[in-house]
């Protein structure tokens, strides 16, 4: 595993239950500012049974970027942690953002 992957996974692993972060935040915290898209790509390639809390990472608009089954899975996982989400997949960043 290269340094980028290791740093991203490390940051995502630290997001506490009941909090969310953005792809850009994770990139910045890992020392790779401006690499939000790469974070998204990396997380989208995780195996289905990954224990990494990938579901706690959303886009900078406070929305879930996934569609269809992925969106439903992410919404369910977040709601199970007590995070309020609109039917459109929008989350209040001011309230739930981890930094």
TrEMBL record:
Signal peptide: none annotated. Residues 3-83 form the Methylated-DNA-[protein]-cysteine S-methyltransferase DNA binding domain. It comes from the Bacteria. CDD domains: ATase (cd06445). Keywords: DNA damage. InterPro entries: ATL_DNA_repair, MethylDNA_cys_MeTrfase_DNA-bd, MethylDNA_cys_MeTrfase_DNAb, WH-like_DNA-bd_sf. This is Methylated-DNA-[protein]-cysteine S-methyltransferase DNA binding domain-containing protein.
